[in-house]
Amino acid sequence: MISYVRGELVAIEEQKAVIDVGGVGYGVYMPQQAMTLLPAIGSTVKLYTYLNVKEDAMQLFGFLTRDDLEIFRLVIGVSGIGPKGGLNILSSMSPDELRFAIMSGDAKAISAAPGIGKKTAEKLIVELRDKVDIEDMLEHASHGNDSDAFVPASDSDMQSEAVQALVALGYGSAESMRAVKKTSPDCAAVEDILKEALKYLF
């Protein structure tokens, strides 16, 4: 198993980045959104990887963070969704947007990915809803994937309630989260977070 690759980014191709590791060029398939965040050609990059072995090919899928790799593993664990399908989903929406789509039951957003039908999207939601935690996601979004920083549970709970309240009001899950993340850490109640978040949504 190849857990990650670290080397020089030598090329960016369609759905694939080429990383030179000790003189060997690894072609790593990546979500389109992640590829837009890659550094300049010639820079050193580290990608967390998943190796897919088939009878006629070995394919390496790469992600910028462990968190992104984990959501990819969850997605391809759903029967009927292979690595290419998982890549298509994460190319059409970010990991956080996918989590919110799962929690809010937004099959339409997930099925917008190429090759993912409505029934498959609904199945993904059913199978992964209990495996996605909004509090963990909000902590990750606030402090980054590999940070040891800690968000007090009360703060995370308030953010979670605020996001859920905005979704209930009809706002999209992803835009609700973005608005809540922009609010001041000094907010002492859910109502305060909602008031600030609504300013960003209007």
Describe the structure.
The chain is of the alpha+beta class and 202 residues long. It has 10 helices and 5 strands, in the order βββαββααααααααα. The chain has a 5-stranded mixed barrel. Helix 2 packs across helix 3. The longest helix is centred in the C-terminal third of the chain and has 16 residues.
Lateral strand order in the biggest sheet: 1-2-3-5-4
Q: What's the SSE pattern? A: EEEHEEHHHHHHHHH
- Approximately how much beta-strand content do the residues carry? 15-25%
Helix amount, in percent?
40-55%
What composes the largest sheet? 5 strands, mixed, barrel
* Average pLDDT number: 84
Number of helices: 10
Number of beta strands: 5
Structural class: alpha+beta
Low-confidence stretches are: 142-153
State the distance separating the first and last CA atoms. 47 Å
Rg over C-alpha atoms, rounded to the nearest angstrom: 18 Å
Please state the overall shape, judged from the principal axes of the Cα atoms. globular
Record keyword descriptors for this entry.
alpha+beta; 10 helices; 202 residues
Provide a short characterization of the protein structure.
With 202 residues, the protein is α+β, with helices and mostly antiparallel strands. It has 10 helices and 5 strands. A 5-stranded mixed β-barrel has the order 1-2-3-5-4.
